[in-house]
Amino acid sequence: MIKNPYPGKFIVFDSLDGAGNSTQVKLLADYLNKIGKKTHITKEPTSGLIGGLIKSQLTHDWKSSPECLQLLFSADRAYHLEKEIIPLLKKGVNVISDRYFFSTMAYGNLEIKDLDWLIEINKKFILPDLTFFLKVSPKICIQRIKKDRFEITLFEKEEILKKVWKNYEALAKKFKNIYIISINNNLSPSKFFYVFLHEYAHLLVVQQWGHNLKPHGIEWQETFLKLLYQAIEKNLFHPTIANTIVQQFLKPSVYSRKRDSLILETINKIDNPIILTYVKDLNPGSIFQLKNGLQLKIIEKRRTRYICQDQHSKNKYLVSSFAVVDKIIKKS
Is the pLDDT score of 126 beyond 70? Predict the structure, then answer.
């Protein structure tokens, strides 16, 4: 297989059907375009003649041997590279593809046990600069597929997808010279971007200085910081997240997991805010618990406060409308 010799970066998302490739592809392309890195989205199978033949077989419209199907994928990929991907890479445009040869190998290896043959029919194609394998459980993938589509295709069954994911993991180990990142697809957009920039910085460092540097050395830190600041300048992070990033990177220290953890903790708080329940949100008769453990029943409202009765001592208290409810015991 051939290393990408062109100025544009070639990024690929390969994973199970229903894993959400298309969602993350769009998010990443939007992000790169906003920071001034012209980026094009594409996918396989293509919408061309050969791609149409592949899709019709996957939806059971016609049947051929597994070998024939893999050769069709290979022919479609050759056309895809020649007519779309390579011309853009030559111009310095980044290309993000929703699927590439890892998908056909992972799925093809279910029926064709000769992995070397599958590699052979793809060996003339360029390698991605960066490949993402999105981790999503096969059960969730099938649920998404059934929700979004009227029919499932040839390989879209839970037991089959479990085997396919094992093939992906095996391929990641086999192709150690390819930059592959396995990433959970339950990440929020902000967290995904942060993790992507972290890994993209590694890629840029390797391409400029080679593999002999420390993984989180000064070259990587400066590259990562530059990417983060570009994102902050374009307002691509929530202000609170941006402020945390700036504060953490102002500290003159070597890279640490603690710094990453603090930033990711802030991202979690912003992307998954805690929705508070106040006493004013409950009806009379409801029983709730405050943070101090006191369990109260709402009797009636008095202007901006509520008369509540302690469920153990039976004492009555005036409680603020905006007292935070720790736990609802009984709704009325």
Answer: yes
